[in-house]
Amino acid sequence: MKMTVTRPGNSLTCEHPNFLQTSVRVSNSSPAVHTVLSEQAIVRQPCMGTERMTTMKAAFFNGRGTMEIADVPQPVPTPDDVIIRVRATGICGSDLLMNNDKTEPDDIPFGHEVSGEIVEVGGGVEKSLVGQRVAVETIGQGLACLRCWYCRQGQFRQCLNKAENEGGGFAQYMKRRAVGCYVLPEQLSWEEGAFVEPLAVAVHSVRRGQMRGGETVVVLGSGSIGLTAIVSARALGAGQILATARHEQQAESAGRLGADQVLPADGETLLAAVEEATDGRGADMTIETVGGRTGTTLEQAIEVTRMQGRIVVLGGFRRPITLDWLPPLLKEQSIIFSSCYGIQDGQHDYELAIKLLASGKAPLAPLVTHSFSLEDIDRGFQTAYDKKTGSIKVQIVQT
Prior knowledge:
There is one protein chain. The two termini are 32 Å apart. The protein is of the alpha/beta class. Helix 4 (196-208) packs across helix 5 (224-235), helix 4 (196-208) crosses helix 10 (349-359) and helix 5 (224-235) packs parallel to helix 6 (248-257). It has helices at residues 93-101, 149-152, 190-193, 196-208, 224-235, 248-257, 267-277, 296-304, 326-330, 349-359, 377-385, and strands at residues 2-7, 10-15, 22-25, 33-36, 48-49, 55-61, 67-73, 81-90, 113-121, 133-137, 173-177, 181-183, 217-220, 241-244, 261-263, 283-288, 305-313, 334-337, 343-344, 347-348, 368-372, 393-397. Strand 21 (368-372), helix 11 (377-385) and strand 22 form a beta-alpha-beta unit. Strands 5, 8, 9, 10, 11, 12, 21 and 22 form an eight-stranded mixed beta sheet that branches. The chain has a six-stranded parallel beta sheet with strand order 15-14-13-16-17-18, sandwiched between helices.
């Protein structure tokens, strides 16, 4: 099965064995027609699936520091959409940071680390997809137009004409394009399926940094994204991996997932260890996963990375920062920004993430330290904020 995107003078065909395949044809005089293909036939039909509910439960940040549950209309699919019954949704560090910055209540439920079951399909989607267990690409491909220049390059996160986001995984149901759903192998649990998104983020960063086999890699930070960066670098062929961690549970997990050394977050200890491990050169590649409100970890990345090495910035910086650009200039370092996921070398980062999970090369299930119901989501957020609870990954699980 192939995805073909065709418009006057342009075409792209990519192999995608995991995601639910789509053919899109666009003319200058008519809107796009989206149909999901099977190996047998292209189908057109009314919405199919389970009996529709009119409302559902969803969680919203109330603008006053807590999450609240409300009854809202259940989403309705357009022709190329599916409705997913959400089974597991991870609370991401970005969810925590964004809530801290908000002064107004949410108008839609958020949550982007999602696994679930397709329960309804739009009129242009094959009805046999109902019942499929999927990881949902909520941010890019699940909303993408599939027609613009970026979509034709497989960079759906940068789509210029995304559909309106009507809500994410902190709800009983959510809607996304069928092509943004990636089938989960039977051996993966819902909780592991919700790890596809953060693992794909890390896989993307390692590939963006063009890591070569045997290279020395430093990972700054061992939160859930730092830990997935460690397992991605190890699975994709890193030599030595050195990581920093602030909390005991993070340090233990970093070692279990493949870090050769786990060190305190202060720069002096790390720099000495990196220099000893590399005959004084520094790391070939450093992945910064912390972000925040200061440039401390960026300065640390510049310091521990060798001359002509690469720095991949994965952490989200929530404020403007001041940085001395002379050291990286003199060291001729490449600073590469990495955000979300897409197709690289003909393969989507979600596909590779699913393969790593299914093969056992990314044993992430133990990172789920706490699970809460949707109704108890506020306690889940408070647990995720408080690392003294031992939390690494907190998930909202709906059975």
